[in-house]
Amino acid sequence: MRLLMFIAATLFSADVASSDILVAARTLRSGDIIEASDYAIAEGNVAGAIDAATNIAGLEAKTAIYAGQPIQAGSIGAPTVVARNQPVLLIYSQGGIFIATEARALGRGGAGDSIKVMNLASRSTVLGVVQTDGSVKVK
C-alpha cells in the first residue's frame, strides 16, 4: 500500500522549478546594514525568499540571518530611523492646523513604517508614520 502511494505521489507531483535566490554570505545580526558583500546568489525554491535580481544593499536586517540561509522578504527592511524609547517630535497637520509635541517611541521603525508613540504631555498612545527626519506624523 505504501509503495502504491509513493508511486502515485511521484507520478502526479508537479516539478517545482528552482530559481536564483539570495542567501547570506555571513551571519547578519538584527540591525546590521546589508552591503553587497553580505549576500550571494544560490539556486533554490524557498517560499518567500528574495529573488536574485533584487538589490538589497543598504537595507537593514530586521532579524538574525545566518550564513547560507535564504534571505526572506520579512527579514529585511528600511534602515531604522527611530529607535525604541527614543524621544521624537509628534506632528499632526491637517488643513491649516499644525500641532507638534514631544513623544517617546514605543517601537523602532524606518521611514514609512507605522509605530506607536506615547505623547509625553497626555500619556496617550497613538499610531503614527515615521518620517525621514525622525519625526512621527499622525493622521
TrEMBL record:
<keyword id="KW-0969">Cilium</keyword>
<dbReference type="Pfam" id="PF13144">
    <property type="entry name" value="ChapFlgA"/>
</dbReference>
<dbReference type="GO" id="GO:0044780">
    <property type="term" value="P:bacterial-type flagellum assembly"/>
</dbReference>
<dbReference type="InterPro" id="IPR039246">
    <property type="entry name" value="Flagellar_FlgA"/>
</dbReference>
<keyword id="KW-1005">Bacterial flagellum biogenesis</keyword>
<keyword id="KW-0732">Signal</keyword>
<feature type="domain" description="SAF">
    <location>
        <begin position="19"/>
        <end position="77"/>
    </location>
</feature>
<keyword id="KW-0282">Flagellum</keyword>
<dbReference type="InterPro" id="IPR017585">
    <property type="entry name" value="SAF_FlgA"/>
</dbReference>
<protein>
    <recommendedName>
        <fullName>Flagella basal body P-ring formation protein FlgA</fullName>
    </recommendedName>
</protein>
<comment type="similarity">
    <text>Belongs to the FlgA family.</text>
</comment>
<dbReference type="InterPro" id="IPR013974">
    <property type="entry name" value="SAF"/>
</dbReference>
<comment type="function">
    <text>Involved in the assembly process of the P-ring formation. It may associate with FlgF on the rod constituting a structure essential for the P-ring assembly or may act as a modulator protein for the P-ring assembly.</text>
</comment>
<dbReference type="GO" id="GO:0042597">
    <property type="term" value="C:periplasmic space"/>
</dbReference>
<keyword id="KW-0574">Periplasm</keyword>
<keyword id="KW-0966">Cell projection</keyword>
